Amino acid sequence: MSMWKYITKNITRNLSHYTVYILSSILSVAIFYMYAAFLLYPKVSGTEQLLIACEIIILLFSCFFIAYSHEHFLRERKKEMGIWKTFGASRKQLFNVIVLENAVVGTFSILVGILFGMLLSKVFFNFMSDILFSNQSFVYTFSPVAVFVTVILFGIVFLLVSCRSYLKIKRIAVLELFQEERKPKPSAQFSRVKFILSICFLLASYIFISYASLPILLFTFLPLLTLVLVGTYLFCSNGLVGVISYLNNKEKRQLNGIKMLTLISLRKKLYYNSKIIFIVSILLSAIMISIGSIQLYIEKNNQRMQSTHPQGALFVASKGKENKIEDSINELKRQGIKDLQTKKWEGLKISSESGKKEFLVIQNDPSFIKNEDALKNNNYIFNNKKKNDITNGIVKLKSEKGEIDLKVKDMNGKRVLNPIDGIEGIISVPKNTFSEIYRTTISEKKLSLYKLDFKEDAKSYNLFKKLSDTALLKSDNLHNVRLLDYENTVQLSSILRLTGLFICLVLFLALASLLWFKLYEDMNDDKKVFRSLRKVGLTNKEVKRTLYIQISVIFFVPLFFGGLNLFIATNALQNILEGITIYSIIVIFLIFGVSQFIIYLISSYFYAKKVL
User: pTM of the prediction?
Assistant: First the structure.
């Protein structure tokens, strides 16, 4: 049999081992290629550093995932390699088999991943066009450079993994390869000291993170990270075993034999899988905290935008010169801008007593003050930059027909209208007061204000961008559009959300694959354990329940640590940044929880079919 036929037969025979590994590798390659193709797109600028960072994260995690997966395959096939050595396979032949076999799998994953990436790139480019608010759509074109970079980098990754595997196998004796499956596993040990240390480390770090200020957190980041990692590892390796040991001792006192057997098998399962539980817990925590931080950053930006620009757009025109603005609003409606709502106010531009400052006087509105009695009886001054305009609660204004004294309540911390050039403050007065001032003001000082609220997307951005080049916004009419003022902020937020979503999807699926590999690695041992449990009297239902409990603990302990670390990090951010809410974090945790539960159901179903 030729070498190529032997390698092909090996891959097809071990296809069940390779399936999840190949699918995850294909997805990693596809997403890497999409980002590379977009990064090399001629019209892309201003986001290169963020996209390069995403590429590096995907590549580094792919290295870790591929290396771990391949090590799992070698562990499963050590006996087979022992047979090769027994029959006289040389080091060169052993190297050729390992490298060529991994090269076939790697080549297939890279080629299919690139093809899959090409298919997805059209949708991906449309998404990026929307979130970047480009006035020109991004049309995907084949990028030879992106293909070359993807093939070279992932080819190097697969080659390095193969060489590492060969060096590891070369150092193991033939007898050790045959006895790999027969090696007795160490008994599940529990250290009360390590368990107490894990609780102390985690509590100390969580309490410190929750109450420390930002400078202290930055200064102590590395020690805190080390404390959390060590505490989590000690808890996964000793704490979980300790909890199960306590429950087992409780069942001993109650002479409940069936539960004792279930807990004993669970304790061994947790002890032997403590390392993978720790790794997945930390990586899942990192993923959840990253996506949570991105969401909180976006929400904070939205709050800042809303506080400085309450309206999506605000147009101001002199009385009798509103035709251009109204024509533009009608054009926006004809263009189909989504959820467009308009409102018109009358306003008066009046100088202060000194004549050095301009105020805008408008009628009280429920969107400013919700108390109806206050709307009828009080005058308010909003976002006034200098309080020396107010003397004993009185603002003195000067009109062409005399001075006006208004007793006002200072609302300096609140903004009710978008910034308007030349306006120092907004004075909101009741209807009757506004009518009196309106009658004594010359027509040149009378203004019409148009408030526009709409869905802020790429279409609305492009429409308002075009308006900014028309005579409407180049004339004497004042205007302010939130999307145009915060263009870079909105683009960055959208890119962060999309890139974070893609990267987290890759990492989350890879973590699920790692858990599946670990289950598959323990399959033969689990078959023996459950066969023994049946012999001592457990029914099929009780054996199946024991299996599902073991798998659920392995899947949901990392989710518990991920959620705990996510909420601790959120609590720290709430102490540092004001106005952050926890609702979106709860939604993120629920999404991860539901996703993990679905993966658990699929994994437990197929694993139970193979084991029981």
Answer: 0.77
